Amino acid sequence: MITKAKQADSRFLLKRIGKRLKFYRLSKGFTQEELAERAGFTRSYYTEIETGKRNVSIVNLCRLSSALNVPLGELMDIPIDQEVALTRVVNS
Q1: What is the pTM of this model?
Q2: Could you give the CA distance from residue 35 to residue 4 in angstroms, rounded to a whole number?
Q3: Which comes out higher in pLDDT, residue 83 or 49?
């Protein structure tokens, strides 16, 4: 059974990834539609990823990493003080 705490941790992680994607997308000067097209997604699917509403697969994160020309490790870089939440998600 998934507890509310684990669901909150999962949402936190998805939102954190979405914020990093948005940062890199804007720094490269892409609209959501442009990045979605480069990665082979619809704009609505990408928007759900960026807003933390979609549990994105590692394969699709790799596609976004490639479309942004940003190493996957940079997209996934989570500050040390937030590792506790990440660890709970991974271990759930």
Answers
A1: 0.79
A2: 33
A3: 49
